[in-house]
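Trying the structure run again after the queue cleared.
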Amino acid sequence: MMKELRKKITGLFVMLAMFVSVCGTLQVQAAEFSVTDSKAVLYSNDNTKVYRTPDENSGVVTTIASGLPVDVTGITSNGWFRISLNGAYYVPGYGLESRNSGNTNPVVNNTDVSILTKGTFSFFKNPQLGDFTKTEVEDMDENTYIKYLDSYLMGYALIENCILQDTGERLKTAYENEARLDKNVAGMTMQAYLINYRNNYLSDSLAGPFRSEKDLKLAMNRAIRYEISTFGAVYKSSNIGDSESKMTKLLEGVIDQMKAEQGVTFTCRMEYGDYKTGDGDTGKGWIIEFTRKK
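Done. Tokens:
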């Protein structure tokens, strides 16, 4: 029977291997099996029964409705998934499945996160990370806050403690509240939810409207750090107004400074007109598209 069970779940393990992060092997007390620590999110199906131990004789604790995300924390040597459900419980291998590759909210694996957060690890695994207060997070500048978000993505065992700067809510609270109302949010992991929030925050931090040369340089530095080749921004200043000659001179100066300080050259095109930012801010200003020169 065990050979047949293992055969049935082979395909699941192949899919799981694409995004599981193996952290080590922990020998549990029962002599007949061991469990390998892993981290992933799989989805329940029509036969998702939860047991106290990886043994059908241990009794069914509960049944999970089909199509719900389930946090997997390990794989047992006898073909079960260990899950987190107000404690450690177990589901047979056939009781969980991955979403297909066409899912609009796929689980993001460690490699993707490493690329996403490249060069931003100053907070990573800092013991203070989970102790920041709402006030401290609200006072963070944009560069620091993006590092803060990246650190939670890299060390996402702590992810539910992350504070969202715009609302002051903890990530877990915001995620669960939205998941109750939006099936698309319910279908994504908390990590994927944070990545969406982080990407929107990063995009807004590049957009402006900016009102000084210093602000433009900060945006360009951020684009260099995150290897963003092209981004749009708005510049608005009463000293510049709609004067093309003044704006051209300002941009040439900023681009020259960036080349001298960072060794990176940007080209840009600009036009004066109406703008609207992601935060809903509207007005008239210089709409600029920056491109990093290769």
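The first strand starts at residue 24 and ends at 26. Worth checking whether this holds up in the mutant runs.
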